[in-house]
Amino acid sequence: MGRFVARRILYMFAVILVVSAITFGLMHAVPGGPFEREKPLPPEIIANLEKRYHLDEPLLMQYGRYLYEIFIPRIDSNRPGLSLENDFLINIRLGESTWFHWMNFGPSYSSRSRTVNDIFRDNLPVSFQLGIMALTVAILLGVPLGIIAALKQNTIFDYFGMSVAIFGVSVPVIVLGPLLIWIFGVTLRWLPPTGWGSKPPYVMGVFPSTMGWDYWKHAIMPAVALGLGSSAIIARLTRASLLQVVREDYIRTARAKGLKERLVLTRHALKNSLIPVVTVLGPMFAALVTGTFVTEITFGIPGMGRYFVTSITNRDYPVIMGTILLYAVFLVVANLIVDLLYAFLDPRIRYE
Amino acid sequence: MRSKFFMITAALIVFSMILGACAPAPAPTTGPQEPIVQTVIVEGTPIVITATPPPAEPPAAGPKVLNYPTGGPGDIPTLDPSLASDTTSVQVLEETFVGLTRLDETTLELKPGMATWESEINDEGQEVITFHIRDDIPWVKYDAVSDSVVQVQDCEGNVRMVTAHDFAYTFLRTLDPATGSPYAYVLHGIVGAEEYNTADGAPEDVAVEVLDDYTLRITFKQPAAFNPFIAGLWTGFATPKWVIEGDDCNDPRGDRWTETGFNQSYGPFVMKEWIHDAYLDMVKNPFWPGTEAVPVPKIDMVHYVMLDAPPAFAEYEAGNMDVSNIPLADMDRVMADPTLSQEVNIGPDYCTYYLGFNTKAPVVDDVRVRRALSMAVDRQALIDNVLKGGQEPAQWFSRPGLIASPTMETHPDLGIKYDPEQAKALLQEYLDETGQTADQLQITYMFNTSAAHQRIAETIQQMWADTLGITVNLVNQEWQVYLDTVKSEDTPQVWRLGWCMDYPDAHNFITDNFRAGGSANPARGGVPYGGVNWVNEEAEELMRQAMIESDPAKRVDLYAQAEQILVYEDAVIIPVYWYTSVTVTKPYVTRTFGVGGQEHWEKWDLNK
Fold first, then answer.
1. Which of B74, B320, B483 lies closest to A36 in CB terms?
2. Does A66 reside within a domain?
3. Residue A153's domain is classified under what CATH number?
4. Average pLDDT score over residue span B200-227
5. How far apart, in whole angstroms, are the C-alpha atoms of residue B301 and residue B288?
């Protein structure tokens, strides 16, 4: 088990290396550059800017510099936070004026007073909070709907549950969001139409410092809008999987040996039917917690989502690299957790 | 007896009103809509005056907070005067700093900002402007511990005043090649500036001289009416060197100096808190003395929220925003709504939407085709059916209202108008001469990928098909790729762009764009390279004369002649429409309407 995890973490570094190489190549291959504007800058100024960000160096050297900055830790006497060029994600104080630094994702070109690490520090926690809530909504709504639909197959419960699921899949946030805002924000005025209830600094880098109604009232609509689509996927998967499992031989055996129906369902059927659900939860988790563009724009939430899109339109190279790598890390870690959960759900699976 | 009674009553009422105005937060005892009955004694005869209370009357309950959306998604790019180049950044900068000169945002008149100035021409024909800077403006910052704005002190504990040194520092920092300022080129008119910014020039040779603590002298290469504007642009706002580079009692913050906690400024408002991607709060600067152009703010705080137009408008309807733009999708509903339509204001916005021709490309290398295409665009129909924002049909490029730009009142027939008959005739002439038919013409119209540009392109495509029988081929590209394409040797035959003002002078429109080497007429080694691909010596000479001419009327006339060549005689571009800004404002807001993309909140008031 320990070796398995260790191997997977090593494998994660390989994935990051490959993803970073592909992203780096692609973003430099597309036409346009970070300093091209509708009102064009004089070539001399562009040259100044490119020199400042080392964009005048050969691509391979730039890539090497990038990998060095994000992977190689260093120990020096620089206090963190003073310079944009040397802003590290992890800073640990070792002595009076000795610091351990690791992971410098570089400055942002389009937001000149910030670094990619600033975006991770200020915006990622918001997306993370929203993503966790949306995922909770998705599971709490999707799993029960799917179970009821499967157990009461072809009844009114089944049809109702699946109608909700189809609604959730087919009405995207871009429609549902403004609709919710219109009903609960503008007409009834129960909830604030936009905004987010917490701001930096965050507790342990992620959690909001206050969790009262002022915090939750901002979160309800976006979490529901975002979670509904995912809950539909979960509901359909749960239903299909459970329908298949209850027809398995071991369920018949369990019933034949006189086990109570409730125990048959909870101990044998449900646990096994959750494997496909848990499988999709991995990527779903990674996608939700790293930010969602449309939801964040619609509800005016200061999350990470828009950086995935705007960094590409702006050719903001360090932000493109940072967001993609962040997503890759979340995806790999989420999949690792999913793999570990398999072992719990299905005793036949063992990792050596 | 009777008059004495009235006298006392009147005195009591007046006294209570004074008290009411002074007390910070008493709950209003009467409804604000109730008429006030005021009794005034005029030579012993009591006269009763009944009036509804003026909106300013109810006592302010707590601080006056203006809730204002940015109207676009995403963070404010920067709060560094040397780096800013977009309207949201400049909006905050104009309120937290004041330039040497300051533009009246409603009339585009140039007023003294931090300085008064006089101008003279030296022996070399250069314009020397001497600025006399106010000596009563301290540097301030927001102090989170005391929750108030405090004056900045130097290492000896003296209050730091804004001096000529601070302004000179910014000019040189903006021009410093290491800063990489995207907007430094607007300062290239200063002697020595372009050389320092783009070549081997030295900072000492830049003609920005500090004569004493409160006197600054700037020498421009050529006399021009807009030189004082350039000196007052945000690229020349004073900046705190001691925060950026550090000194004995400050850590150097570099580009981070604009962040919450480090930021220092001196304008009518002070930045309190900047939560990236969420909002930026500015509070009133109690140390701003108030000047003719920049009065003491009446509102206590501006809550500047980063919201895209649709959510901002939802917040407006929910009563949480005081001002908003109207999303296109809501335009028809707003105009039909009896309450909302009363809150709408349509004002000019100093931008022009146009289509450019690559005048070297096949088919459109003939001026008759270009003019025919331009005349076949029914601009008013496009505005009424597609744009719906009360835009104005454009007859030429430089938006009317700019200094030295022709206006529709003075030049109703200048430029080009919708004229389908003449368009058909011109095209027919071309077709007869080349022996082609209209459907044989191959024309590509390119725009950057966007639903709004797509709608405009499809409408114009239809107009050309209906009037001229030409079916153009529509192509779109992603924004950055598109910018590359329209300024390359592969520039398509027809392309679209817009232009918004940097400073309010026709020079910033026609000359900055269409002179050889201009923004939309790029050149490489003196040869046109992409854009409109255009050379016209006569237009070039007119634009040059207009720049150095000092008589305003003659300048308008020169620009009018140049515009006529640009849009009619050579028909290099199709001016499509002049922008308007459509906003809604809650009735309790007393406001001015900025026409250049910026609002001056220090002139606003809230009467909630």
1. B483
2. no
3. 1.10.3720.10
4. 94
5. 14
Confirm whether A151 is domain-assigned: yes
Whole-model pTM over 0.90 = no
Pair of tokens at residue B203: 């900072």
| Cross-chain Cβ contact B311/A182 below 8 Å | no
In chain B, pLDDT over 90 holds for what percent of residues?
72
Is the residue at A200 inside a domain? yes
pLDDT, position B45: 44
Closest CA of chain B from A273, distance in Å: 41
B310 contacts on A by Cβ (under 8 Å): 178, 298
CA distance B139 to B158: 11
DSSP helix/strand/coil, B211: strand
> How many separate domains does chain A show?
1
Quote the domain boundaries for residue A214.
122-345
Q: Where are the alpha helices (DSSP H) in B222-342?
A: 227-232, 241-244, 309-317, 331-336
Lowest mean pLDDT among A33-42, A107-116, B542-551: A33-42
Determine which helix (DSSP H) or strand (DSSP E) holds B541, and give its type and residue range: helix B537-548
User: Contact, A35 vs A49, CB < 8 A?
Assistant: yes
Confidence (pLDDT) at A352: 64
pLDDT tens readout for residues A54-84: 999 999 999 999 999 999 998 888 888 777 8
Is A116 a domain residue?
no
Burial of B102 (0-12, 13-18, 19+ CB in 10 A): buried
- Dihedral, CA of residue B191, residue B194, residue B199 and residue B202, to nearest 10: 40
The owner of tokens 């090497």 is A64
Taking a contact as any Cβ pair under 8 Å apart, which residues of chain A between 151 and 190 contact chain B?
A: 178, 181-182, 185-186, 189
Q: Which residue of B has its CA nearest to A197?
A: B278
Q: Rounded to an integer, what distance in angstroms lies between the CA atom of residue A340 and that of residue A336?
A: 6
